[in-house]
Amino acid sequence: MQTNEWVFVAISIAVAFVLPAAPIVIARFLQPRKPNKLKLETYECGVETVGDAWVQFKVSYYLYALIFLIFDIEMLFLFPWAVAYNQLGLFALIMMTGFVVILGVGLVYAWRKGALDWQ
Amino acid sequence: MVDFLVSSGWDKNLAVIVASALGAVAVSSLGLVWILVSIWLERKFAGRVQDRLGPNRTGPYGLFQTFADVGKLLTKEDITPAGADKHIYNLAPIMAVASVILIFGVIPFSHNWIGADLNVGALYFVAVGSFATLAVLLAGWASNNKYALLGAFRAIAALISYEVPMILSLAVPVMLAGSMSMQDIVKGQSIAYVFAVPVSALIFFISQLAEVGRSPFDLIEAESEIVAGFNIEYSGMKFAMFYAAEFIHAFVICTLTAVLFFGGWRLFGFGTPGQELMGWITVWAKSFALYIVVMLLRNTLPRIRIDQMMGFNWKFLVPLSLVNFLMVMFLARPFTPDYAAADAAVAAGGLAAVIGGIFGNGFIAELPRTVVLLIANIVLFWGAVSLLRRYGAAQRQLIEARYGTPKAVAPAPATGD
Known about the structure:
The complex is a heterodimer of chains A (about 120) and B (about 425). With about 120 residues, chain A is an all-alpha fold. Chain A has helices at about 1-30, 60-85, 90-110. Chain A is flat, with a radius of gyration of 25 Å. Chain B is mainly alpha-helical and about 425 residues long. Chain B contains 16 helices and no strands. Chain B has helices at about 1-5, 10-50, 65-75, 85-105, 120-140, 145-175, 180-185, 195, 200-210, 225, 235-260, 275-300, 305-330, 340-350, 350-360, 360-405. In chain B, helix 2 runs parallel beside helix 12 (about 275-300), helix 5 (about 120-140) runs antiparallel to helix 6 (about 145-175) and helix 13 (about 305-330) packs antiparallel against helix 16. Chains A and B meet through helix 1, helix 2 and helix 3 of A and helix 2, helix 3, helix 4, helix 5 and helix 6 of B.
C-alpha cells in the first residue's frame, strides 16, 4: 500500500511543476516580444542601477537562520517521539522536558545576548 | 480505481501508475480551479469591506473578472532583465505554485478521498511548504535587483522564524493522534482538537498566516518600503504565478487548520464511510469559514513593522508554544483515550449509551482529555494575554513619556452630503 502512495507523490510532483509551467509556455506564443536594451534594464524605481545586487548582506538576517536551524533539528527528534506519545511512560516525558528546557535555555541565552532584537 | 483497472485486464503496476496520475491531476487542478473563484471572491469581499462594489462589469456580479485578467496576462510581454540569472529566474514562479499544489496531495477530503495517505503526512506538508520559501529566495536572488533581494531576505527571515512555532504547535495534534498521517489525525478527532488545544490551533493559524505573507504579516511585499519585494522584476504570466501561489496558499492554510484542528471531514454524523461527498463538502465549508477570517484580517489590520514581527514570533509565540507543548505533554498522557473501554461502556447501556448514540463512541473516550486540556489551555491563554497587555501598557507609557498623551482629534464636521 505504502508504495502506491509514493508513486502518487512522485507523479504529483511532476504534475505540480507542469501545471504552472503550462500557462507560462502558452503565454510565450501569445505575447508580443519586442525586447530592447532599455526595457531589459534592472528596474529600480526608474533610477539607474549602481552595481550588482549580489553583494554581502546584513548579518542580522543570518542570526535568525542560525537560531532557526537549532529549533529545526529539534523538530526532527520531536516528531518520532510525538508519534509514539500514546505509548510512552513517565520517564520519556521527563526526558522530553529536559530536552525542551535545554532548548528554552538556548532561546533565553540568544534573547539576553540581543540576537532576537532587530537592528 | 486500481481494482477496476486490474479487473478490466490491466497490468497491476500500470494500473497503479495510471490511477495515481489521474488522481494527481485531479487533486492538483483543484488548487488552480480554486484561484479563479478565490480572486473574484477576495476582490468582492475587499470591495464590500471598503464600502465599494468591487468587480461588477464582466459577467453577472463581475464573476468573469478573473477570466478577463487571465486573458490580459496571457498577452502581456514577459520581460527577463538582462542582468538576471535566467534559469533560476524562470524556475522560481513555477516552484512557488508547485509547492502549494503539492500540499493538496495529503489533505484528506473524506474517509477515502485523499491523494496519498502518507504515514509522514504532517512532515510532508511542512517540507513541501518550505519550497515556497525557497522560491521566494530564488526569485529575489535571481532578479539581480536590490529591492528584490532585500524583500527576499526579509521574507526568508520571517518565514523561517514563523516555521518554529508552526511546527511546535503541529506536534500537538500529532501527539494527540499518535500518528503523522493526516487521515489518522482526522480519525482521532471524535472531538475536534480545537476544543482540546485551542492555543495550539491559534498559534498554528497565526504562524501559517505569516508563512503566506498575508496581512498583517505582508511586509514581505511592503509596497511603501521595498516597492514590491521579491517579485518586483516579474511581469506577465510569471508574476501571475506568484500571485496565484499566494492565493492558493492562503486557502491551503485554512484547509490544513480545518483538517488538523477542526476535525476535517468529520462533523457529528457526516463524513462516515460511504458519505464521501458530505465529507468533501464539510472540509470545504470549514476551510471556507476560516478563509473568511483570513480575508477579514487582511482587510482590517494594518501592516506591522519587521522588528515587531520578529519580536512577536521569537519573544512571544516560540516561548508560548514551548510552554504549551510541555503542558499538553504532561496533561494529555494520563487521559489517553481508551476506545475499547468506551465501546464497552456504550454496550453496557445507561447514560454512556445515550451520549454514544448521539456523538459516537469516540466522543466518550476523548471527553476527559478534552476537558482537562481545555481548562489548562484557558489558563495558559489568559496568562499569555495578560502578559501581552502588560507589555502593551508599558510600551504605551514609554511613548507617552516621550511624546505626551495623544490629544483627542475632533471629529470632522458633518457636511450635509
